[in-house]
Amino acid sequence: NWTPFNFVEMTVNELKEQVGEDKVVLGLSGGVDSSVAAVLLNKAIGENLHCIFVNNGLLRKYEFESVLHQYEGMGLNVKGVDASARFLDALKGVDDPEEKRKIIGRVFIEVFDDEAHKIMDAKWLGQGTIYPDVIESISVNGPSATIKSHHNVGGLPDFMKLKIVEPLRMLFKDEVRRVGASLGMNPELLGRHPFPGPGLAIRILGDITPEKVAILQEVDYIFITNLRNWGLYDKVWQAGAMLLPVNSVGVMGDERTYEKCVALRAVESTDGMTADWVNLPYEFLQKTSNEIINKVKGVNRVVYDISSKPPATIEWE
Ligand code: XMP
């Protein structure tokens, strides 16, 4: 019978056998899957696992520093690479959602390849692919899963010529969390909401500027912190804020304002394929809206998204 304990024991032995003394490169996304895959590999091969965690400048507030710090605390051999400027530069003036995704995917591969190149003689690419990704083959969760195995042909980035090792490819999400728990990983890390690989880029409607990213990070931070403080975070499958390309009129003191509008979104779901908006308490929404408008300069209106998927999607882009 399947238990997380047995799975860990068996997988660690298999990984030792499969990888031997070789070096493995793995991209951490801050998400559950890549993190659990890294801890398993680390248990099997230690310092021969080289993790790379890229800041694309589109993460949540404090995310890069705090997650990197957690990874280091877990004993992972991890390098944090701040490539924010490179991503934001490449995205300048782009407002089409699919174009944004393509650019972010391309720049991620460039950055990752540069870093993987520095790890001499790496033989394997570790990935946090889980069973639903394997079936779907088109994955939606984070950079580590967006790098799909490719044929070993010329012209590909160097890291794509590596052999693939995917210790979680037979597991469902809840099993991954149980494995993580049995490895002693932080429950907060294991309980994190899904977050899209392109990050805040697809929550800023229209073109992306550093100022807009900073505004949305503040709004998102207030929303998520309040969800945690009200004990609502774990009751919600995913939550976040969207910065709309709309200004509306407001008043502050006796001044007329003409500022940005943000939409808050919180959904219940099991797999992201369908989703219902969450009936958050009015008092929570009231406090959160007041806090956002009072604290975040440039925002004078907050709305709550009450659309389900389908026909709406979870993200607005
Ligand atoms: P939608 O918006 O399609 O989102 O209802 C379903 C789930 O997928 C995530 N998502 C993405 N994840 N790259 C990702 O890694 C993407 O381009 C992307 N688009 C959406 C979304 O956050 C939700 O969990």
Automatic annotation (TrEMBL):
Q: Where is the GMPS ATP-PPase domain?
A: 2-192
The protein's Enzyme Commission number? 6.3.5.2
Q: In which pathway does it act?
A: Purine metabolism; GMP biosynthesis; GMP from XMP (L-Gln route): step 1/1
Q: Please give the superkingdom of this protein's source.
A: Bacteria
Positions with a binding annotation for ATP: 29-35
Q: What does this protein do?
A: Catalyzes the synthesis of GMP from XMP.
What is the name of this protein?
GMP synthase [glutamine-hydrolyzing]
